[in-house]
## 1
Amino acid sequence: MLMIRLQRKGKKHQAAFRLAIGEKRSKLKGKQLEQLGWFDITQNKSDFNKDRILYWLSKGAKMSPAVNNLLMNAKIISGKKIAVHKLPKKSKDKVTVASAAAPAQTSA
């Protein structure tokens, strides 16, 4: 499956990203099929190749949630944004306490 993802470039503490399309299971640092644009987070500048992005989406490529939100801000695609933050994990203590507090059903 083809995936449009952000590929990190730049120096340490000076992040810049390329918008790249490649196989989902391939390494992100490896060779990608095509570069579709760039995004500099420090200066808040970007340049995307809209025609090529829409072409790959029409061919069935998927986007990562961060790319989806980035392209929505650039008004290249429309729809709803996707939450990219991770939800906190449930601790095992709460699960065991809840199951122990439930009354045990006995059959008579």
## 2
Amino acid sequence: MLAKDAMDHTNIPNLPLPESVDLSHADWEFRNSVDYGDFDNPDVPNIDNIEEGHRLDFMISLTGDVILIADGSDVNYLDGIDVNSVIDCVEYHSSSDAMKEIEAELDRGFAGVGIVRYGGQSIERISAGFDSNNSSVDFEIIEHPTPGYQHE
């Protein structure tokens, strides 16, 4: 599981969020090392932003985006990401009519088609470890995130 901030979001003082989840035990945490105010859970390994000079925290869109995880061997991302360095890539969008942003060899479909913005839903891989490079087939929408638990 990847978390923007690997913290217990149900226990934030003065901010009651009943639909929040505890992400303090995530497998990986997005971290921007040039943002000195960015939360960092020392017990969770970091995934760093490679965009030089980018000072904002990692954030993904609620309706559509691409999450691409690479091994770091391609140090010049400005000329495009070397496909051989990609560990996994998921493109999600709430609409199946959206234009694809990523090459088909990395992801041929969209995860999350029909997901409701601020609906408390989550996108989950259907079979842990299975990746056909088509997110339309590999992922499903579940009604509530369940960090650390894979549905069957």
## 3
Amino acid sequence: MSLALQAKLLRAVETGEIIPLGAIKAEKVDVRILAATNKNLIKEVEKGNFREDLFYRLNVVNIKIPPLRERKSDIPLFIDYFINQFNIIQKKKVEGVSPEALEILLNHNYPGNIREMRNIMEYVFIFCNEGQVWQKHLPEYLRAAVLSRRDRGEKEQILDALNKARWSKTKAAEFLQVDRSTLWRKMKKYKIMEKNS
């Protein structure tokens, strides 16, 4: 918020009065102010972007809510909340999320925090009208991340088996319980080169 608007807010907090839009006379108000920010206000005060007097007026009870990525146990609660909300808004009958879709949602880091979670669920409701939400209903970037993680895991397993087998593809295939041709194909896929003799 601009410094001019901050000054008006400070005046309202200090006097308990506001001037309604279009009015010429101030009116008394009895309100509590709840302020939220995703910025470090102490640093903003130091930079001159936030009024120090307003900061100390607002900073009575300070509650820090960690980002969604730091409280994964809340994800199922938000999923249920958004499903209920979008069922009402869009008049649909989505019942919940399948275990495979839930696993993907639980493993995502949510750089966009709750807004991103809401957008994901809004996307889901474009493709899912009723029943459970499946992996196919999730945005492409979430599904691609799962495939990438699986590929990394599989590549590590192959390298581990090859190292244990001293790079004998026959023995490594036995460790992995796959055909030698399957191992060869996967080595090619992950660009795993044979060790030079």
